[in-house]
Specification:
Number of domains: 2
Shape: elongated
CATH class of the largest domain: Mainly Beta
CATH topology of the largest domain: Lipocalin
Structural class: mainly beta
CATH architecture of the largest domain: Beta Barrel
């Protein structure tokens, strides 16, 4: 009986210590083709983290009361507070809300924890993956640009704008390249990330679908649907719709 009691006490102490230990989790979500990644470190009620959208990196700090998060987005270089942030932890989901000013609607984003389990490998395409299965569409050959932007009223040292620009190059010989660059700035601060190459490989179309093959990959995979609307290219997949301009 004494041994069993001691084991129970030891297990209880271990569980308390485990809860008290700082923990870091990584969350990721995509909205309008822009991926937000947050690494969140929770130490008791204190929260610190890093937030990345494209190549723009920002800091995050605040407090956690139960499952409710209250904090601010900060410039990692100067520590200047840029935007207030609220959120909620729901199991493996982090829901955050950012409101630039009282007159603007909040930006709400749901992010899933991505370090909880290994990501499953994508399943093989159901159709033939050979280059002969597709063709090239001369109507979409060229250099396309997609920009997403968030604006606020700004003010003295306040947040003014944040934009992410993607460039998609579809060459007439079947080569493809996509890169991204992010820029943010306002009042007395600015932050700019360099260009990051997201994809290099080949492209083709199959009906109204765009298929791509990354360098070194054995097969083409479906990237989503596409269509030309005037001088614009509209692509759509599970992550959302993107509108590209030349």
């Amino acid at each position: 009986m004494t041994r069993r009691f001691m084991l129970m006490v030891a297990a209880l102490l271990w569980s308390v210590l485990a809860v008290a230990q700082p923990r870091t989790s990584t969350y990721e979500g995509t909205e309008r083709g822009v991926t937000t990644r947050i690494a969140l470190r929770v130490d008791g009620s204190r929260v610190e983290g890093a937030m990345q959208e494209g190549t723009l990196a920002l800091g995050l700090r605040g407090t956690l009361a139960g499952q409710q998060l209250t904090g601010v987005i900060v410039d990692p270089a100067s520590g200047r507070e840029l935007l207030p942030l609220t959120g909620e932890l729901r199991g493996d989901t982090l829901v955050i809300s950012v409101q630039p000013d009282a007159s603007s609607p909040p930006r709400r984003l749901s992010l899933r924890r991505v370090d909880a389990a290994p990501v499953a490998a994508p399943s093989a395409p159901s159709t033939s993956a050979g280059a002969s299965a597709g063709s090239l569409d001369a109507a979409i050959v060229g250099r396309w640009r997609n920009e997403s932007q968030i604006n606020s009223a700004g003010g003295a040292g306040g947040f003014a704008s944040f934009s992410t620009v993607r460039v998609l190059e579809l060459a007439a010989d079947g080569r493809a390249r996509q890169s991204v660059r992010s820029v943010g700035g306002g009042g007395n601060w600015s932050s700019q990330g360099g260009e990051t190459v997201e994809f290099v490989g080949r492209w083709q179309v199959r009906g109204a679908e765009l298929w791509v093959q990354a360098e070194g990959a054995p097969a083409f995979v479906r990237a989503g649907t596409y269509r030309r609307v005037g001088e614009r290219l509209v692509t759509e997949n599970a992550q959302g719709r993107q509108i590209w301009e030349r």
